[in-house]
Every structure is written in C-alpha cells, then in structure tokens.
C-alpha cells in the first residue's frame, strides 16, 4: 500500500488544518473527501483535490455553486427629487446564481425612523452597461416638506435579498398642504 497525501484547495488556495479548525466544524477533510456543512456564498468556487505519493501526483477539480437571493445593492444615489417623485441610481450586488428581475424601494423620513416600502416589483433601466448602474423613477410616493433617505432591495427567483445602505438624505421642495389642519382649538395665553 502506497502512502498518499491529500491536499485540498479552494480557488487555488490550500485549505490548511487551521482553516478547518477555525470553521466551527463546517469543514471536514477525510482523505479524498471534503465535507462542508451550512454552506455560505463564500464557499462558492473551484475545489481541487491533489493526491501525492512516491509514484506521482494526480488531481481532480470541481466547481461548487451556491445559489440564493441577491446581495444588497450599493451606491444608492438620489439623482432627482421633486415634491412627489424621486429618481434613484444604484449598482446591483451579486446575483447569487439567478438573474435579478425586480426591486423594492423603501424610504424613511426624519420624523418616522421606520423604513416603509414606497413600491414593490419595480423594474430598473440599465444606464451604463460597463458598470451595471441601474436607474428608476418612483412617482406619487413622496410628500412635500419632507426629508428622505432611500434604500433598494433586489429580488430574483430565489427570494428577496437584504437592503442596500441608505442613500444620503434629500429633501422634497415645499408645496401647498394636501390635508387641512385638524384638532385646532383655542389656545389660552397666560400672563406672567
């Protein structure tokens, strides 16, 4: 029986005993077998098993693809903001094995710290094919006299991904009130 050494590589980098020890029992190497539990997107890539003996060396490679909801978009910018509409641009995150087909745009104001969906199922236009920059305009979703932050979430056939970081804060211009004031009453002035 020949003595054989098995060397495992991930994307060209040798998987060392320290990597296995630091994996919280997610990785296990047993000779020519590599087992991975609770896979993450970082486990995607090319795996190679190199077998060395006194006679020679052989290797075999395989590609592992982990699919899931898309990663969060980045670089969300407000291009145009008016009293009731906004035009946003962003760059997609990783699609994780399935093309992105729609987006959800969320917003929050200075007076309401909770995120609320402005629209679902939005399609975006690719404005730069080299950078993949996307753009969309949302109408009739904002109110005048407000200061907004926006974020974008992408959806593919495998689900909705996490939202982007918030855009910088932008204010809508003033306009006439849409709702009459309520709960108006007399106010007493006290003299001191």
Automatic annotation (TrEMBL):
An example Gene Ontology biological process: axon guidance
A GO term from the CC aspect: plasma membrane
Domain Fibronectin type-III: 72-175
Annotated region described as Disordered, given as residue ranges: 156-181
Domain of life of the organism encoding this protein: Eukaryota
Keywords: Disulfide bond, Repeat
Signal sequence bounds: none
Name this polypeptide is given: Uncharacterized protein
Domain Ig-like: 1-65
């Amino acid at each position: 029986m020949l003595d054989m050494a098995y060397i495992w590589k991930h994307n060209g980098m040798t998987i060392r005993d320290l990597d296995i020890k630091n994996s919280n029992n997610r990785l296990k190497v047993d000779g020519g077998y590599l087992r991975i539990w609770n896979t993450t997107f970082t486990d995607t890539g090319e795996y190679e098993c190199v077998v060395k003996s006194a006679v020679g060396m052989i290797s075999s490679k395989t590609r592992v693809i982990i699919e899931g909801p898309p990663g969060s978009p980045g670089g969300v910018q407000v291009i145009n903001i008016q009293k009731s509409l906004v035009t946003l641009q962003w760059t997609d995150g990783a699609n994780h094995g399935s093309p992105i087909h729609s987006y959800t745009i969320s917003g929050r104001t200075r007076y309401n710290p909770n995120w609320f969906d402005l629209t679902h199922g939005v399609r975006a236009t690719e404005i730069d094919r080299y950078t993949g920059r996307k753009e969309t305009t949302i109408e009739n979703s904002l109110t005048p006299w407000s200061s907004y932050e926006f974020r974008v979430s992408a959806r593919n056939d495998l689900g909705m991904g996490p939202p982007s970081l918030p855009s910088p804060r932008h204010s809508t211009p003033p306009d006439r009130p849409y709702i009459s004031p309520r709960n108006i009453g007399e106010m007493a002035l006290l003299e001191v």
